[in-house]
Amino acid sequence: MNRVVYLLFNSIVLIAISFIVNHNNGPMLNAVNAISLDIHLSLDNNTFDLVVGYNKQIRSLAPNDQIDLGNTSLPHITLYLTDFDNNSISFIQQDLSEKANDCEILLNQIVVQGQYAMWYVENNDCLQYMSDLVVNTTYQYIVPNQPIPDWVLQLPEPLRTLKIDMIEKYGSPNVFSQFQPHITLAWDQYDNMTAVFEELSIPDHTYISPSVGVGDVGNYGTVLNNQYALYNFNGRIHFQFANDPNPPHFLNNKNNNLISNLNKIDIIDLYISYIIQKKSKYSNNTHPSTTTTSTTTATTTHSTCD
Ligand SMILES: *[C@@H]1O[C@H](CO)[C@@H](O)[C@H](O)[C@H]1NC(C)=O
Ligand SMILES: *[C@@H]1O[C@H](CO)[C@@H](O)[C@H](O)[C@H]1NC(C)=O
Ligand SMILES: *[C@@H]1O[C@H](CO)[C@@H](O)[C@H](O)[C@H]1NC(C)=O
Ligand SMILES: *[C@@H]1O[C@H](CO)[C@@H](O)[C@H](O)[C@H]1NC(C)=O
Ligand SMILES: *[C@@H]1O[C@H](CO)[C@@H](O)[C@H](O)[C@H]1NC(C)=O
Ligand SMILES: *[C@@H]1O[C@H](CO)[C@@H](O)[C@H](O)[C@H]1NC(C)=O
Fold first, then answer.
1. Low complexity: which segments have biased composition (predicted)?
2. At 103, phi and psi to the nearest 5?
3. At CA 150, angle to CA 35 and CA 193, rounded to 5?
4. How many CB atoms lie within 10 A of CB 306?
C-alpha cells in the first residue's frame, strides 16, 4: 500500500518537472544552466613560455594591464567562445574528442584594438576548418537568445547585421567569415599600448598547436583553465595515403589528416591489421611499388602537420 502511494507520488513529481521544463524553454533555463566556455587551441611549451614572458614585459611597461598570463589565465587561440547549456557538457566533450586536429600557427602581427593588444595569427585553411568544425559540431548546445553586445550594435552596416545574425544563430559574432585567430596579450584601459609595443620587439613565431582545450572564461575573454577537456595531439599518427586507391576505413575521407579520436594503441592496431591485409592482398602480384608504399608509411608516425 505504502509502495503504491510512493510510486504514484513519484510520477506526479516527474510529470510536474517535465511540465516545467517543457514550458520554460526560455529565460528560466538560461539563467539556471548557462556556462561560458572557450574552446581553443593551446600553445606548445616554448610558445607558452614566450608569450608569458612578453605579457610580463608588457605589464612592467603598462601597469594597468589586467591580463596576467601564466598566473591567473592561460594564453590560447579561441576557436569558439559562447554560452553553452551546462547540461550539455558531456555531449560537447564527446563530439569534440572526435574532431580534434592540429594546425600550424604563424604569429605575425601585433594589433592594438580598443583596450586589447593581440598577437594575430595568420589564418590558414587548417585553422578556419577547425573553428568552423567546432562551431558546426557544438552550436546545437548553446544557450539561445544571447544578448547583442553594444560594440556590435555600433558597427557600420553590413557588418552589424552579419554579426547580429551570427549571434542569433551561433551565440558568437566571431565565427566563420568573422573568425580572426589571435592570442590576447593585454587588456588595458589607461596605458598607451601603442607606445608599449614601440618599446618591445616581438619577432614572428611559428609552432604546431599541441591540443584543443575547453575551459572557463574570465574577464576580458581570458581562459581560466582547461577543466572540461584537453585533447592532446601528441599520440596522433599522420598517414599519407594520398596515392592509395583504398584508404583505410578509419581515415575520414574528407581530410586525410583527420583521424577520429582513437587512442594511439587503437590506431597502431588498426594500422597493423591494415598493413597485414594489404600485404596479403599484394603479396602474390607483381607491384612491388605498392608494397613499398605500405612499408614507407609504416614508419610515418610523427604528429606534425606538413
Ligand atoms: C554545471 O553543472 C555542474 C554539475 O551539475 C555543477 O556542479 C556546476 O555548478 C554547474 N555550473 C554552472 C555555471 O551552472
Ligand atoms: C610541457 O610542459 C608540461 C608541464 O609543464 C610537461 O608535462 C610536458 O612534458 C611538456 N612537454 C614537452 C613536449 O616538453
Ligand atoms: C604571479 O603573480 C605573483 C604575485 O601576484 C608574482 O609575484 C609572479 O611574478 C607572477 N608570475 C608571473 C609568471 O607573472
Ligand atoms: C559548417 O557548416 C556550413 C553550413 O552548413 C558548411 O557549409 C561547412 O562546410 C561546414 N564546415 C565544416 C568544417 O564542418
Ligand atoms: C600613444 O603613443 C603613440 C606612440 O608613441 C603616440 O603616437 C600617441 O599619440 C599616443 N596616444 C596618446 C593618447 O597619448
Ligand atoms: C596469395 O597466394 C596464396 C597461396 O598461393 C593464396 O592462398 C592467397 O589466397 C593469395 N592471396 C591473394 C590475395 O590472392
1. 286-306
2. -140, 155
3. 90
4. 7
Could you give phi then psi for residue 39, rounded to 5 degrees? Answer: -100, 120
Peptide bond before residue 158 is cis, with ω within 30 degrees of 0? yes
Which residues does a 6 A CB cutoff place in the pocket of ligand 3? 52, 56, 68, 70-71
Which is more confidently placed, 8 or 279? 279
Question: In terms of pLDDT, which residue wins out, 304 or 9?
Answer: 9
Q: Which long-range contacts (CB under 8 A, 24 or more apart) does 268-274 make?
A: 268/237, 271/237, 271/239, 271/298, 274/248
Q: Does residue 6 fall inside a structural domain?
A: no
Instruction: Look up the CATH number of the domain holding residue 205.
Output: 3.90.1140.10
Give, for ligand 3, the residue of 51, 58, 59, 68 to mutate: max count of ligand atoms closer than 8 Å to Cβ.
Answer: 68
From CA 111, how far away is CA 182, in angstroms rounded? Answer: 9
Which three cell numbers, joined as nine digits, stand for 290? 605498392
pLDDT in tens, 198-208: 999 999 999 99
The rounded distance, in Å, linking the Cα atoms of 187 and 193 is 9
57 is in which domain, residue-wise? 33-236
Q: Which residues are within 8 A (CB) of 30 and not within 5 positions of it... i.e. 6 or more apart?
A: 83, 143, 144, 145
Residue 152 lies in a domain: yes
Comparing CA positions, the residue from 102, 109, 92, 115 lying closest to residue 215 is 92
